[in-house]
Amino acid sequence: MIKFTDARPKLKKAKQGSSKKTILNKLKAFLTATEPEVIKLLVSKWKTQGSSITYKELREAYLAGGMTKEQFLKWQQDYSKLINTILAPKWQQAADVVAQEVKAKYPYFVYEPMISASMDFIKEHGAELVTNLAREQKDALNAMIAHCSGYTAVTPDEVARIMRPCIGLTKPQALSNVRYRETVKAAYLKEHPNGKAETAEKKAANAAARYAAKQHRYRAQNIARTELAFAYNAGTYGATKDAQAQGFIGDCKKVWLTAYDERVCPICSKMDGEERNMDSVFSNGKMFPPGHPSCRCAVAYEEIPDTNLNL
Ligand SMILES: [Zn+2]
User: Fold this and answer.
1) 47 C-alpha to center of ligand 1: Å?
2) How far does residue 299's CA lie from ligand 1's centre (Å)?
3) pLDDT at residue number 310
4) pLDDT tens digits, residue range 224-254?
């Protein structure tokens, strides 16, 4: 059925430069508002995970040469809970923010969070993220176990003490923490040839714990930014799809927008301005940003003139 509506005055097209800035600034404002809480909750989650795993479990994992399947499943459940309670509401918030913007433009636009196109992306992505986080955790612990197996004269208890503060770190982070600990210990013994091994061990443990705290924060920041930017971009895509399904917007092309301020995305700089059909992937294989961890790029959806038969 063709709907007949009153002719609407053609909207003046905003200047490309200024609309690009507006879109990027909106994403930036969303990230600034939502990141701190996610960072805090992630860090405290890892703290809980670190203190809930016993030395006995870590020692057993070391002796067995790797983490058990049970532990992996426990972490998977843990992350699933984390995502449902912390990230999913933020993702929903991102989708809501974007949908409200569409509504401001088209007052009769109906937004149903549960059936919005953006939810499919968010659900699928949430499941992937749970698996990835649990797998990264297992890989990190297994890499530490393999690394410490190369030590001579180390007890399983010592290894458990080395591993515990590193729970929640990625494999490269965990290994860098272990190596840092070794450096601090060696430096102390070099400076104090008659120093006690116990004192050196204590100094190294404290230094490693301080370093781990910084590493946890860095990783939390990275996850928060990447995941929130994903939600925002998935929300924009979904809201545009919803508006198309309801006849407010015709066919669209999408344009990749790179953030140009103090921290340019070096990986994405070649993507800037790349255009694709709405449902095609960009040349980097992504439907929309983020293109990489901590990416702050966004997408503009531009209606192709004369493609909306409802107008
Ligand atoms: Zn980027």
Assistant:
1) 30
2) 10
3) 64
4) 999 999 888 988 888 888 888 888 888 899 9
